Amino acid sequence: MRFRFYLLISLLSLSPLLKAQTELELQPDSTVFIELEEDEDEESEEFDSIVVSPSEKYWDFIRPRDFYFDTSFAPAHHFYSGWDTVTINPYRVDVKNMSDTVNLVLANFDDCAFHPPAIGDVTSNFGFRRWGRRLKFHFGTDIRMEVGDPVYAAFEGVVRIAKRSADYGYVVLIRHNNGLETLYAHFSQLLAYPGQPVKGGDIIGLAGSTGRSTGPHLHFEVRFQGEKIDPAKIIHFPSGSLLNDTFQIDKGCFKHLYEVQSARLKAKTPKSVKARKNDTVAKIAARYGLSAKKVARLNRVKVGTNLKAGRRIRLR
């Protein structure tokens, strides 16, 4: 009898704790405590644990609690006027018509050490390639990887973007001290956050196949003032080394933009059209963004010739 009495008292004393635990499990927005090893995050060694809501992203809670990035310390401020953590290319600079030549120091003994972004075979280079029936321009270099392989920052700098996008999947963009920006796409997991200082060789994520990807790989881009440059002009991928310690940027680095523009116009331009009433070659050419002289030459007429309605005019 005495045993039953003590058992009843014990159950009554535990019931509030059991009820609280049940309510905690049923709460969809309950707080979760994730314990860290002592050496897992040196910047957070002073904390025993990091508090994480289930709705938060991983890269939100690897960031120190009191972290603040002063944008006045953004790298390469003489090349870039702003610091945007959302838009990949907020600059809208017409670099393909640049008149100056810019010389960048890619590697030296101070703060520009280089590290290859990934270790693997190149599966797709910078340039035009077939995507099903369509011809598309590939603006980066693809490196074959396995899911979970480490991806490294190429140079020292600061992470400007770390997010998920529809095309790139999980993507990181770093602005470097040397003036370049590099983009890394299709991560399975991000290990970087906006405003994070990185050095060449720091791991910024794990390879994957998120976004528009047909298999695990790293899509790697090199950019200057928002526009892409062929990474193979800077990096010798078979050896994973720089081609040169310096790199010269001029409008020749962006001549592929004219090829892309031409290909897009060609894709939108029909082979021929019927002339409308009061049409001239000049009017038709302007309608499709073409050279009037070229259209006139194709059709063996003068630019200002009035065309009969319904006449078939070749455009390409």
Write the layout of secondary structure elements.
Elements: H1 2-26, E1 32-35, E2 49-52, H2 58-61, E3 102-105, E4 122-124, E5 127-131, E6 134-138, E7 141-144, E8 150-152, E9 157-165, E10 169-176, E11 181-187, E12 189-190, E13 197-198, E14 203-206, E15 217-224, E16 227-229, E17 235-236, E18 241-242, E19 246-249, H3 256-268, E20 272-274, H4 281-287, H5 292-299, E21 312-314
Antiparallel strand pairs: 1-2, 3-19, 4-7, 5-6, 7-15, 8-14, 9-10, 9-13, 10-11, 11-15, 12-14, 15-16, 17-18, 20-21
Helix pairs in contact: 4-5
Summarize the structure in words.
By secondary structure, the protein is an alpha+beta fold. The protein has 3 domains: 20-56, no CATH class; 71-260, Glucose Permease (Domain IIA) (Distorted Sandwich); 269-314, Roll (Membrane-bound Lytic Murein Transglycosylase D, Chain A). It has helices spanning 2-26, 58-61, 256-268, 281-287, 292-299, and strands at residues 32-35, 49-52, 102-105, 122-124, 127-131, 134-138, 141-144, 150-152, 157-165, 169-176, 181-187, 189-190, 197-198, 203-206, 217-224, 227-229, 235-236, 241-242, 246-249, 272-274, 312-314. Strands 4, 7, 9, 10, 11, 13, 15 and 16 form an 8-stranded antiparallel β-sheet that branches. Strands 8-14-12 form a 3-stranded antiparallel β-sheet, with no helix packed on it. α4 (281-287) crosses α5 (292-299). The longest helix is centred in the N-terminal third of the chain and has 25 residues, at 2-26. The relative contact order is 0.12.
